[in-house]
Amino acid sequence: MLARLTPLALLVLSPLANASECGDVTIADMNWNSATLMAHVDQFILQNGYDCNAELVPGDTMPTGVSMTEKGEPDIAPEFWSNSHKEMLQKGVDAGKLRFAGKAFAEGGEEGFWVPKYMVEKHPELATIEGVKANAKLFPHPEDDSKSAFMTCPSGWTCQITAGHLFDALNLEASGFELVDPGSGAALAGSIARAYDREKSWFGYYWSPTPVLGRYNMVKVDFGVDADPAHYESCITQEDCTNPKVTAYPPSAVNTITTESFAQKSPAAYEYIANRAYANADMSAMMAWMEENQADGEIAALEFFESYPQVWTQWVPADVADKVKKAL
């Protein structure tokens, strides 16, 4: 799709001198695929739709949050996983320096236990945890086929703690399952890829949005209960929890954070930031595309505009959408 774009079209992402309606805006360009894609999309829309002089600045979660709170810059952090930094961010909000503008991901960060869709198509009961437990033999352990395998998070990751506690709460060991540590995040992703390429069985923990779930069609297993955020926080996330109960994973808060000064100075631009949120499936697909094409955030933004007009045109008024389309 990008072959149709001329070099001139690519230049539109560079800052414009005239930004009389909105003024100068700085956007944190963080160093992972989803965040840099968001930053470039925001820059393009603010630049061309709202006449902002939008500039990208390097960012990372903690230093960006501290800088926004203490120095009032950058103006926008498009993707901020806020659960781990609640206290710092709330202090900024309480001091009138920050705003939680909206959700970066419409469904929040999504965690769960997953099985391949082709397995569910053959055995629909595998969409539920009770169906998985009743059919444990469909998931043979790679080293001992008398047991069944559950792929967990690598050692040292927080999700190893949460997945382990839910493994216990769901009583999966009694059904014959054993925790399998993949050793690394790359190995965990690779285990899904190998299973999918050969249409083999797979059951384990993963999260979204990610390139893996954009590339491979997986079904999140229904635990049969709603999320209990209080128990999840007080027990499931704690290594020393001794009495874990079954709970669905609560969505992880992934917010767009802005400075209060940006929200006050540029209300129309702020409204766009507050309105836009990416569906996890769309972002996973874009992240997979970025990996497959070795694309940076700038090129990925152009791909997003071209492939998802039905999404981004809903984030802005019609006249702004028209301006962005002309810029493209």
From TrEMBL:
Signal peptide span: 1-19
Positions of the ABC-type glycine betaine transport system substrate-binding domain: 24-306
An example molecular function term from Gene Ontology annotations: transmembrane transporter activity
Keywords: Signal
Keyword Hydrolase on entry: no
GO CC terms, sorted: ATP-binding cassette (ABC) transporter complex
InterPro entries for this protein: ABC_Gly_betaine_transp_sub-bd
Pfam families recorded: OpuAC (PF04069)
Protein name as catalogued: ABC transporter substrate-binding protein
